[in-house]
Amino acid sequence: MAFLDESGFLLIPNLLKTWAPVGKTPILRHRYKRDRISVISAITLSPNRKRLGLYVNFHTINITGVEVIGFLRHLLRHLKGEVVLLWDGAPIHRRTIVRDFLLQQKRLHVFRFPAYAPEVNPAEFLWANAKHALSNSAPDDLRELGTLLQRAIHRVRGSQRLLSSCIKASDLPWP
What is the homologous superfamily of the domain 2-9+32-169 according to CATH? Predict the structure, then answer.
């Protein structure tokens, strides 16, 4: 089983409340650049529900159907047997090239989450975790943002507890 989602991370800082001495308001200086890193990921759950995995691809362009297909190929190379894929109804998932690709993949079974229900997709909690880790930082360029983002995602990838918390935080019914 795989829960797939995409997100974007801007160079514009994500601000979060913080502590500071009275009268010393923290100042976060940044360049107002709207450059971004687009990320596509899948949280995977083994058939016996004992092992979680995280697969991620980074892009400096907006994710299109081409990138979705490339990521699905990557996922299918690494996962054995039948793969149940759950994702949202984003327009890039409905592109003709993506639909044609899905028709050719006999071991990939795709289901959509309900419309406007990000709370049921565990991958959304990965993004929340990553955005929280990047909050109050002001990277100067995409390379620095990429480094911070990779560090945050690798922290989650390396922890079964954090991956499990993404699934438990979702509103999916689990036995």
Answer: Ribonuclease H-like superfamily/Ribonuclease H (3.30.420.10)
